[in-house]
Prior knowledge:
Elements: H1 8-38, H2 53-60, H3 69-90, H4 94-113
Helix pairs in contact: 1-2, 3-4
Amino acid sequence: MGSNSISQEKLAVLTAALNKARLAHIQWVNDLNRQVIFKSPLDSFTKKPTDCKLGQWLSNVKPGSTVDTEHYNSLNEVHIALHEQANRLLNASLSEIIDQADKAMYIAKSMGRNRVHVYNAE
């Protein structure tokens, strides 16, 4: 195997974990929307990017050895920005919420366009 190759088994595990983290983050965005729109408290809402499932996945992979570094860095950057924007949104007044929501949606769409490339096994 080359230096950027991983086994099929590890590839399957990484891909499954990434998909699970991605789906959890979609739910996180839905929870954020519900909290902002209805002012409903969420006991388990994760504000820190390192505490959510996607943040944990990003913390556990090794850029360059299992995933493409450029794509990893891009996804991580957008992920952190989304959490920062969400925190601003949660602390904003009603007039600020509209502006912040537009920014958060833009970041979320950017996140959807970013893909982490997991190296294929040889």
